[in-house]
Amino acid sequence: MKRLRSRIVGLCLALAAVAGPPAALAEGEQMKGPEDASAPVVPQLVPVDSLDRIFPDLPPKPAAYTEPLSVPRGGKVAFQFALMPDRTGLWRISASPLLRPDGKALAADIELYQVLPVHVEANTCGCSRTSSTSTPPAEWLKAFVRRAPFDVAEVLVKADRLEVTDSSTHAILVDVYVRPDAEPGEYTGSLKLGIGDHAVEAPLSLLVHRTVVAADPAWHVTHWFWPEPENLTNQNPPEWWSDRHWQLLENSGRQLRAFGQDTLFTPLIEYREPLIQTVRKQDGTYEFDYTRFDRWCELFLRLGFRYLEGHHIATLPAKGVYEGVFVRDEATGEKQRLVPSGGGNAAWLEFIPLFYQSLYAHLEAKGWTDRYIQHQLDEPKDPELYRKLAALTKQYMPKVRTIDAINSHPRAYSPLVDIQVLALTILAKERDLAAERRAQERSVWLYHCCSPYPPYPNRHLDEPLSDSRLYPWLGYLLKANGYLNWGANIYRGADPYKTSIGPVPGGSQNPGHPPGDNWFLYPGPDGLRGSLRMVAFRDGLCDHALLTVLAKTNPQRADRIMHDIARSVRDYEKDPASFRRARRALLNALDQP
């Protein structure tokens, strides 16, 4: 019966693909079948793998993996569905309890999301080289989910209703958190959508394993978080550091934590309204007000973040990067730029020790020196400047670790940084350096941004969602201690629902960065919203945690499962079913006594 039903659904989808999407309907109008204008079209609610994309203008691809999805206790599992509606209006969304054959209900929290589409106007053509008129190499196009322009389901919005205004394909996500005390076993339920007395239903099925996954990830993770009020909401932005701003920061921090992030990019004395306020006294000395900084640290540590990473100290005064550093003159009350535009590094290098001494004393007083890490200079290309910065940090903040992304001459810079963050292709080439650092108990993290390009994986909107799930597997393959990405929410004035080319500094998108490169979360009324890319990455973090635990007792088996997914940074799986089988293999191995 299952096979017959699957064939019928497949035939319907194939016919729909040939016919193309029907024209938009008037409000409340019922959609008609192609053979008989008087006969209603039967609506379809199609299970789609959460690693496959849903396009509003195309019929969905039914999930190929039909076994119950494996999940550890304490973990999450996502089910995606595509609705091909037969009528417009407000559809209800609900999910039944998940039950075992014996009637036992799963101890779980179920969240329902409408997945909003975003527009992708151009395919990836490179850093600062992507535009609606540029064309990527033919070999790259083979790696993309679709040739641009197109719309694609991406943004998660909690919903118990779905507004259908036309005949396009709509995406729904069911996200299930299995509590650590849940009883193992196979559970089934259903997702139901209805309008009036009309309903359509699809099954949910998951296999809860004995293994319990830890609440904190085995991998350190940061997607750089940008605190500007306009980067936190799609409504009118509030004033800096107002109660509303703090609420948006908290809500957004909860989203980041929900997707496995444990390290938070933290502003310091930059911006016109800085987190740490600087006052120039009448005698020429400086005083620093940590009131906002303390509130920031206490908030995000309370949310479960393990580390706070201070912005790059070298570039804080640069106008156009973080607006520059402003001080308030005690005598006049006026704000002035600390380092005038074009003032060079000398004045700033003289100021850093004054700031570092004050910051370090404050961190020590609060007991945060082991929770705070300091960026110095991103992707440095000036060894002399970097040595000066490293020496200042070690002299004035001796217990604080440093962290930086380094591409150029990684061996030369390695002695100067505690957490060396290497791009995917660089880390793959420098595995001996990484091994040396690990032997010295010094961390190596993995990162990527605009690059790498096909055949290497990336997490752009025109690349498979499996690439987002893959990155934690690559971290395990390369034995990285953590992961860094620069763009949680750096919109630079763009509306990420209407455009996907990443603006470069100054806001230009013609050309700009690849689609979705600048952001993985989206602004909502009350803070940042998640995305399917973040769901896939979160599930990859769970895979990484399971690999790490298995490797403690059976490293050979962990490596065999790992090689089923990631054999090298150029040889890896994209098929969603491969990840489903690998997750089950991991949990079966861990479930054994």
Report what the structure shows.
The protein has a domain of about 180 residues: Immunoglobulins (Immunoglobulin-like, Sandwich), CATH 2.60.40. The protein is built from 13 helices and 26 strands. The strands form 6 sheets. The protein has an 8-stranded parallel beta sheet with strand order 11-22-21-20-19-18-15-12. A hairpin with a 2-residue loop joins strand 9 and strand 10. The longest helix has 22 residues.
Structural class: alpha/beta
What share of the residues lie within helices? Answer: 25-40%
Globally, the shape reads globular
Describe the sheet with the most strands.
8 strands, parallel
Summarize the SSE layout with pairings:
Elements: H1 2-19, E1 44-48, E2 69-73, E3 76-84, E4 89-95, E5 108-120, H2 138-141, E6 150-158, E7 161-164, E8 170-178, E9 185-195, E10 198-212, E11 220-223, H3 243-258, E12 263-266, E13 277-280, E14 286-289, H4 291-302, E15 307-310, E16 326-329, E17 335-337, H5 346-366, E18 372-375, H6 383-396, E19 401-405, H7 410-413, E20 419-423, H8 424-429, H9 431-439, E21 443-447, H10 465-477, E22 482-485, E23 501-502, E24 513-515, E25 522-524, E26 527-529, H11 532-553, H12 555-565, H13 576-591
Parallel strand pairs: 2-10, 11-22, 12-15, 13-16, 15-18, 18-19, 19-20, 20-21, 21-22
Antiparallel strand pairs: 1-3, 3-8, 4-7, 4-9, 5-6, 5-8, 9-10, 13-14, 16-17, 23-24, 25-26
Helix pairs in contact: 5-6, 10-11, 10-12, 11-12, 11-13, 12-13
